[in-house]
Amino acid sequence: MTIQADKVVASIITIGDELLIGQTIDTNSAWMAQQLNAMGIWVHRRVAIGDVREAILEALDREGAVSDIVLITGGLGPTADDITKPVLCEYFGGKLVRDEATYLQVMEFFESRGLPTLQRNVDQSLVPDVATVLHNTRGTAPGMWFEKDEKIYVSMPGVPHEMKGLMSDHVLPRLQEYFQTPAIVHQTLLTSGMGESFIAERLTHFEASLPPHIKLAYLPSYGLLKLRLTAFGADKLSTAAALSIYFHQMKELLADITVTDEDLPMGEVLGKLLKEKGKTVGTAESCTGGFIAHNITLVPGSSAWYKGSVVSYANEIKSGLLGVKQETLQANGAVSEAVVREMARGALQQLKTDYIIAVSGIMGPDGGTPEKPVGTVWIAAGSAKELVTVKHQLRYDRLNNIQMTATYAMNELRKLIV
After folding, report:
1. Residue 335's Cα: distance from chain center in Å?
2. Is the dihedral of CA 361, 363, 367, 372 positive or negative?
3. pTM of the predicted model, to two decimals?
4. Is the pLDDT of residue 1 over 60?
């Protein structure tokens, strides 16, 4: 059966006390929302609840009343606090029965590892007899698909890679068969160097000209601002064609601050440029402690253009490995233009790359002085022929200061080589 709808609405319920006390960060609902959005399904609400029977029943009632699809993760494990299955049985009716395929999978899982199979492990093969079982090839807890009052409910494990496997293997294909949804197309412009309010001011007339089926969203992210245009229509092809006209208009208005017209992390933006030019880069990091290298090496294939890093957190490493002069450190301090210049030159010699990024700063919460308060950062980026230096005064907490510094540093090199 395929249902055609102008708007298909979904809710996401994540279950687990660990989510409510902040012990575990919920990444599941964000990933699921992205997948649903790409299919043209609107996520109406995301709800986190504890391992409490009444809370689960209430959430199922509430979300089922407003949504066509309710996705549920968590509470399917082998321990006493994992109560989702019996509560689902209570809500949808029926009784728990053994799913033979899951039982055999559980037995093989433990036997192949030379581990005893406990009764609580065997019980993971129990499922409500009114559910369609979605077999989990990445773990021992199966997914379960329910239909009630023309609504779809899907329960999955809370382990992220297991949930993603079930979504990709079973849930998303089934939803595509079940619902015929409107097309949703996104295009994203990544900008740097101008604040959100100033960009909004520049785009005032452009925003006013947008038709009702095209929306603009402002998405700040660590020294960058993403501008996402979203269009809704009957089919992907015509919707994308209509969106591209307005996207090109926006690009022209923001040409001077555009980083890329793709929704990419800064490490990948920089990597694409270096790969196109056949050049390499290295990093010399003090205050970021390798975070720039981390961002770069998250990009698949980065070994083609990234050679390595010297994490010169201590002054003796700056001197011993990068050749920063003691007199430079004594006269200027570690957080200074002179020091990042010498760090960059030393790293170019050590790593033998075409380009280099060097950073030194005070990330906080301690270590600042009246002359160099917390958040003071010096960046050097460039090559043996051309090296630029930039100072930033950041005003965030330690982690955000590190993340902002990494973004700013990679962007400085991008601007130099673009």
Report:
1. 31
2. positive
3. 0.80
4. no
Beta strands in 318-415 (DSSP E): 355-361, 376-382, 387-393
Q: What is the mean pLDDT of residues 205-218?
A: 96
Other beta carbons less than 10 A from residue 368's beta carbon: 15
| One CATH from 3.40.50.620, 3.20.20.380, 3.40.980.10, 3.20.20.80 for 3-180 | 3.40.980.10
- Residue range(s) of every CATH 3.40.980.10 domain in the chain: 3-180
Instruction: Identify the CA nearest to 290 among candidates 311, 307, 313.
Output: 311
- The 8-class DSSP code of residue 167 comes to I
Q: Which of 248, 340, 353, 350 is nearest to 288 (CA)?
A: 340
Annotate 244-278 with b (16+ C-beta within 10 A) or e (fewer).
eebbeebeebbeebbbbeeebbbbbbbbbbbeeee
Residues of the chain with CATH 3.30.70.2860: 183-260
Report whether 378 contacts 336 (CB < 8 A): yes
Helix H, strand E, coil C: the string for 59-86 is HHHHHHHHCCEEEEECCCCCCCCCCHHH
- 266-417: which CATH architecture? Alpha-Beta Complex (3.90)
**Nearest 5°: phi and psi at 383?**
-135, 180
Q: 3-class DSSP state for residue 272? A: helix
pLDDT tens for 98-119 read 999 999 999 998 999 999 999 9
Overall fold of domain 183-260: Alpha-Beta Plaits (3.30.70)
pLDDT digits (tens, 9 = 90+) for 55-77: 999 999 999 999 999 999 999 99
Residue 95: strand pairing partners: none
| CA triple 237-221-364, angle to 5 deg | 165
